User: What shape does this take?
Amino acid sequence: MHSAPSAKPVHIVGAGLAGSEAAWQLAEQSVPVVLHEMRPTRPTPAHKTDGCAELVCSNSFRSDDAENNAVGLLHAEMRLLGSLIMRTAAEHRVPAGSALAVDRDGFSQAVSAALAAHPLIEIRREEVAGLPPEDWDSVIVATGPLTSPPLAQAIAALSGEESLAFFDALAPIVHRDTIDFDTVWFQSRYDKSGADYINCPMTREQYDGFVAALLSGERVPFHDWESATPYFDGCLPIEVMAERGPETLRHGPMKPMGLTNRHRPDEKPYAVVQLRQDNKLGTLFNMVGFQTKLKHSEQVRVFRTIPGLERAEFARLGGLHRNTYLNSPRLLDPTLRLKSMPRLRFAGQITGCEGYVESAAVGLMAARFAAAERHGKPVTPPPATTAHGALLNHITGGHIEALDAGTRSFQPMNINFGLFPPIETPSTGKRLRGAARNSAKKQALARRALYDLQAWSEAQIAGAPAAAE
Assistant: This one.
C-alpha cells in the first residue's frame, strides 16, 4: 500500500529509460507524476515507435555479473532499489550468456503498460518546446542525446554553456593498475608543469606497425541520423589523422619531442603515446588524442600493441557519436539540480553518462531526490562507494578540470570500477597476482557497494512518510 500522495506532481520530460525509471520511482514513493513524451507528435530520427523506454540501438544491458563487473553491480543495486527497468528486463530476457539482453519490443511494451496503469502517473503526448513553465516547480529533464532543438536551446541559454550536439569525441580510458610501469614513465613534454603524463615509447618499427594496424582496423558505421553532423573541431578520429600520411601522428598526438625515456635515457623514442589522469581518484588515465571510430574489439587489439599497454584493461573504449549533454560538474549540484534554476533536475544521457543501465540509474537517483524534496525529507546522495554514488560523483565532479580556458574536459562515461574509491584487497593468506588479484579487488568493491547501498536504502525508508491507513 502506498503512503498518502503529495498533492503537486513532478513533471518529467522524456519517456526513455531514465524518464520511465524516474516516473516509476516517484509514483512508488507516492508522488504524482506527469510524464511528457513528444513521440509520436514529434518523431525522432532514431526511434521507431512511440513506446516508453524504447531501445534504439543494442538490446543488451551488458554484463549481469554483480561480483566481477561494474555494470552487473549496478544491475544488482537497481534491483535492490525496486527498479522498473530491471524488473521488466528480467521478465523479457533472451539468451545472451552472462549478459542481460531483452526482447526489445516486449520490454518497451511492458514498461509502457506499467507506467500507463499506475494511478499516480499521467502520460502526456506532447513536446515541451522550450523552458518548462514556471508553475512546474519540480521538473526532471530526461531527454537523452536527441533533445528537441527548442528545449536544448532554452537549456543552453539558461545555463550559459553551449548545449552540445555534434560527434562527441571519446578517447579510450585505461585502468592505471593495468599499465606496465617497467616500460612507461611519468613526464610532461620539456618537463613543463611537472610529470603529469604517462608516456609509452615506440621504436620506428613499432610505430609503423601501429599505424598499419590502425588503418586496417574495422570501423563502426555512422547511423543515418548522425551522418549530417560534422566532426567537432580539433577532435578528428585518430585513424582519420593517420590517413593523411604515415608521419601525421608522429607530428601530432604521438610526437616524441621534449621527452626522455627514463628507463633507457640513451634511446630516443621514435613516437610516444601519452596518457593523462582522467579522474580525481587517479585510478583512470585517458589516451590523449585517441578518439576513434574503430570497433571496440579492434581498439583492444590495436591499442594493446602499444608498449606498456599489452595487458591494459579499458574502463571506456573510444568513440564518436552525436550527443547532447551538459557540462554537468559545472552546471549541476550533487543532487542533479541545475544550479542556476534548482527547480530543474536532469537525468539520463544528457547528464553525461553512457549506456542504457547508467541512464536508468541516474533517472532513479533524480527521482529519489525529487521525492525526498516533495516529502520534506533530507536529500541524501548514495555513498560514493556504491555504483550509483560513483556514477553520480563522476557526473557532478569526479573528473579532472581542463587546464586550458575554454577546453571542455568532462566527457560521458559508462560505470566502471575505476570510478569507485580504492579498496584494499582482502588478505587470503597468499599473495595474489594478475587476474586473480584484479578479480579479488572487484569482488571486494562489489561487496562494499551492496552493503553501503543497503544501509543507504534503509535510511531512506526510515525517513519516508508514514503509510496511509
The radius of gyration is 23 Å. The CA atoms of residues 102 and 180 lie 39 Å apart.
